[in-house]
């Protein structure tokens, strides 16, 4: 992931090789190349333009110290701005409450169920929590089977009601069950559809209203680029979610979703997921990601 962007940025900085100081003239090509690299990574034009305008202003406003070349200075500025674009500091993830309730939403196939398992595993092994995962997808019995397999694999309890077609009631019953069994985190995996639709949105919004979640995580496939950003917008308008989970970072993603989501919906990416193994869940650190891009 980001490989193409990394290479393109590296080559953009080469324009400055041999320059003694930064001037409007000699950074023009670098700035243009950075903008093109971002657009080709599936960042929308407006975000790319604003980004490079900022980089340019910063570069022209800074005195080049003897110890650092214009090329190095540009790398530093771009790295800082990339981190800022992705939210700056690491976002908080709240698991307070008894139980803490975490609602998982997103399109079908985005990786919700896989993430639900990974998050439960993370909270169990890294945070010493005792999670209960809930299959609240009332349309696909296979979704219940899938979560059952994952729960067994990681050794956490699952709550499901195969004959109940009321997702809100299932979520409420799950919380009662969690209290009865002393589970301190409830993770509710909701139904998704292939595109944003009213039935799905109403259902998730109703679950939200009924259970008052501690966190609402919107899960999105990073391979879908600008579509990911548009879907995020639609979900945020209805759900006002608290964070984003980017999945499938192990795939051939260009990186546009990671770079644009925070800017577009003003919500932080909290986790990134790469791969189907239950152990491959990472907390998202914008600064580290920016560093990785400029590797
Ligand atoms: P849901 O419909 O949103 O619950 O999505 P699933 O969790 O069932 O995932 C859809 C497909 O993507 C499944 O085949 C998963 O194994 C796969 N998947 C989920 N997360 C990842 C990931 O981070 N990387 C890769 N490569 N595949 C993933």
Automatic annotation (TrEMBL):
<dbReference type="GO" id="GO:0008312">
    <property type="term" value="F:7S RNA binding"/>
</dbReference>
<keyword id="KW-0694">RNA-binding</keyword>
<comment type="subunit">
    <text>Part of the signal recognition particle protein translocation system, which is composed of SRP and FtsY.</text>
</comment>
<feature type="binding site">
    <location>
        <begin position="247"/>
        <end position="250"/>
    </location>
    <ligand>
        <name>GTP</name>
    </ligand>
</feature>
<comment type="function">
    <text>Involved in targeting and insertion of nascent membrane proteins into the cytoplasmic membrane. Binds to the hydrophobic signal sequence of the ribosome-nascent chain (RNC) as it emerges from the ribosomes. The SRP-RNC complex is then targeted to the cytoplasmic membrane where it interacts with the SRP receptor FtsY.</text>
</comment>
<keyword id="KW-0963">Cytoplasm</keyword>
<protein>
    <recommendedName>
        <fullName>Signal recognition particle protein</fullName>
        <ecNumber>3.6.5.4</ecNumber>
    </recommendedName>
</protein>
<dbReference type="GO" id="GO:0003924">
    <property type="term" value="F:GTPase activity"/>
</dbReference>
<keyword id="KW-0378">Hydrolase</keyword>
<feature type="binding site">
    <location>
        <begin position="189"/>
        <end position="193"/>
    </location>
    <ligand>
        <name>GTP</name>
    </ligand>
</feature>
<dbReference type="GO" id="GO:0048500">
    <property type="term" value="C:signal recognition particle"/>
</dbReference>
<feature type="binding site">
    <location>
        <begin position="106"/>
        <end position="113"/>
    </location>
    <ligand>
        <name>GTP</name>
    </ligand>
</feature>
<keyword id="KW-0342">GTP-binding</keyword>
<dbReference type="GO" id="GO:0005525">
    <property type="term" value="F:GTP binding"/>
</dbReference>
<comment type="similarity">
    <text>Belongs to the GTP-binding SRP family. SRP54 subfamily.</text>
</comment>
<feature type="domain" description="SRP54-type proteins GTP-binding">
    <location>
        <begin position="268"/>
        <end position="281"/>
    </location>
</feature>
<dbReference type="GO" id="GO:0006614">
    <property type="term" value="P:SRP-dependent cotranslational protein targeting to membrane"/>
</dbReference>
<keyword id="KW-0687">Ribonucleoprotein</keyword>
<keyword id="KW-0547">Nucleotide-binding</keyword>
<keyword id="KW-0733">Signal recognition particle</keyword>
């Amino acid at each position: 992931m980001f490989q193409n962007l990394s290479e393109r940025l590296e080559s953009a900085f080469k324009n400055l090789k041999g320059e003694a100081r930064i001037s409007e003239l000699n950074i023009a090509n670098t700035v243009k190349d950075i903008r093109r690299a971002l657009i080709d990574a599936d960042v929308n034009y407006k975000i790319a333009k604003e980004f490079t305008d900022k980089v340019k202003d910063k570069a022209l406003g800074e005195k080049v110290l003897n110890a650092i070349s214009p090329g190095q200075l540009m790398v530093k500025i771009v790295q800082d701005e990339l981190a800022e674009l992705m939210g700056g500091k690491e976002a908080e993830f709240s698991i307070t409450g008894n139980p803490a309730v975490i609602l998982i939403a997103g399109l079908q196939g985005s990786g919700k169920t896989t993430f639900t398992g990974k998050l439960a595993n993370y909270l169990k092994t890294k945070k010493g929590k005792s999670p209960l995962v809930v299959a609240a997808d009332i349309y696909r019995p296979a979704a219940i089977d899938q979560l059952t397999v994952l729960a067994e694999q990681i050794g956490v309890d699952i709550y499901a009601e195969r004959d109940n077609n009321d997702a809100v009631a299932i979520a409420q019953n799950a919380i009662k069950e969690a209290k009865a069994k002393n589970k301190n985190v409830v993770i509710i995996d909701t139904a998704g559809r292939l595109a944003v639709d009213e039935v799905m949105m109403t259902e998730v919004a109703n679950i939200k209203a009924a259970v008052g979640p501690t966190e609402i995580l919107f899960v999105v496939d990073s391979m879908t680029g600008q579509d990911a950003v548009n879907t995020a917008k639609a979900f945020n308008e209805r759900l006002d979610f608290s964070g984003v989970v980017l999945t499938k970072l192990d795939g051939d993603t260009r990186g546009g979703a990671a770079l644009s989501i925070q800017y577009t919906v003003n919500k932080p990416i909290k986790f990134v997921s790469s791969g189907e193994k239950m152990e491959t869940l990472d907390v998202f650190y914008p600064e580290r990601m920016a560093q990785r891009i400029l590797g």
